[in-house]
Write a structure and sequence with these properties.
Elements lengths: L2 E6 L4 H10 L5 E4 L9 H10 L2 E4 L3 H10 L6 E4 L11 E2 L2 H4 L1 H6 L2 E3 L3 H15 L10 E7 L4 H10 L6 E2 L9 H8 L6 E7 L5 E7 L10 H11 L6 E3 L20 E7 L6 E7 L3 H15 L11
Parallel strand pairs: 1-2, 1-3, 3-4, 4-6, 5-6, 7-9, 11-12
Antiparallel strand pairs: 7-10, 8-9, 10-13, 12-13
The structure holds NADPH dihydro-nicotinamide-adenine-dinucleotide phosphate and N-acetyl-L-glutamyl 5-phosphate.
């Protein structure tokens, strides 16, 4: 039987990508509001309460407002925004870390932030396994394609082709830090340095580890083996192939992918390592993850409609 899906914010960057992944899927029927009514509160309230599944692709305030408009106990929600990522009553939509069963049973799922997906996928299993300390002050450096900032940032980067690198969150209060800390069970908030590059999509998230100075930290080989084992059953997350020529490239022309590839690079004596995650901010970082969660919640194969 077909289930209905309403994407609130369907005209935005993540909403459009979700609709693309759902196109041609017979298991779901999209409820749509025309251009004139897509921001009308009454029309949205009706669609939000009619749908079996709602996917919120909205700014945080609008996502909170939309969630509060749902007054039935049947509609299930996936929120792509930051609004509910550490909120009680919401399951964190990184099934590889939160558990597939928890997502499958949830009424409310908060889709992770794109950067957080890379950081948590690398760090949470290793901290949980006791191979990295929970009380270390981790750092995280990352670059994102400009579509990560939605329509406004796309417009800005496409209007100004001279921007070669844009560092931001310079006051160190990026909105993904609370979920990174909470979902990895860290005692101290990670120091997070994001930047945007002149590519439409693509993301690299890195966690540098001075292993030789970290009490209780495992060797790079042990970290690599633990991640490989942890994700062995996943069709979406896994170890990437180490580059043979000593360099890793993101290309501006890369097409979309819903995969998440992990790497552990290290120096000769194992005293320093770099945990690296490569993903598509619009794939496993946003829209691909929403569709994966929708599949799991609907009892379907988690990779249906994904680009792997
Ligand atoms: N882009 C990415 O890589 C990622 C995005 N996200 C999150 O997903 C959410 C959506 O982001 P993104 O798609 O990039 O943003 P966009 O700005 O591209 O799209 C947001 C859409 O929401 C619409 N909108 C805004 N307010 C309302 C409202 N009150 N009622 C109905 N529609 C409204 C906008 O309308 P209009 O078209 O008129 O502006 C726009 O179409 C955000 O919370 C973002 O942080 C999460 C992970 C990654
Ligand atoms: C490049 C860029 O601007 N990226 C966005 C995060 C994209 C994302 O993950 O979005 P939400 O956490 O809002 O859902 C930012 O840093 O604010």
């Amino acid at each position: 039987m077909t289930q209905t899906v309403f994407i609130d914010g369907a005209a935005g960057t993540t909403g459009l990508e979700i609709a693309e992944r759902l196109a041609g899927r017979s298991e779901f029927t999209l409820l749509r509001l025309d251009e004139a009514r897509r921001k009308e509160a009454a029309a949205r309230r009706e669609a939000l309460n009619e749908a079996d599944f709602v996917i919120l692709c909205l700014p945080d305030d609008a996502a909170r407002e939309a969630a509060a408009m749902i007054d039935n106990d049947r509609t299930r929600v996936i929120d792509a925004s930051t609004a509910h990522r550490v909120a009680p009553g919401w399951v964190y939509g990184l099934p590889e870390v939160s558990g597939h069963d928890a997502v499958a049973a949830a009424m409310r799922v908060s889709n992770p932030g794109c950067y957080s997906t890379g950081f948590i996928a690398l760090v949470a299993p290793l901290v949980r396994a006791g191979l990295l300390p929970a009380d270390w002050p981790y750092s995280c450096n990352a670059v994102s394609g400009y579509s990560g900032g939605g329509k406004a940032l796309i417009e800005r980067f496409e209007a100004d082709r001279d921007i070669a690198w844009r560092g931001y969150a310079l006051a160190l209060g990026h909105k993904h830090v609370p979920e990174m800390q909470a979902r990895c069970g860290l005692a101290v908030a990670p120091l997070f340095s994001p930047a945007v590059i002149p590519a439409h999509r693509g993301m690299v998230v890195e966690v540098p580890l001075p292993l030789g100075a970290m009490p209780g930290a495992a060797t790079p080989d042990a970290l690599r083996a633990a991640l490989a084992e942890y994700y062995a059953g996943s069709p979406i997350v896994g170890m990437g192939e180490a580059p043979a020529d000593g360099e890793m490239l993101l290309r501006a022309s890369d097409g979309g992918s819903d995969r998440l590839d992990l790497f552990v690079f290290a120096n000769g004596d194992g005293s320093q390592a770099r945990l690296v995650a490569r993903l598509d901010n619009l794939g496993k970082g946003a829209s691909g993850a929403c569709v994966q969660n929708l599949n799991i919640m609907a009892g379907l194969p988690e990779t249906a409609g994904l680009r792997l």
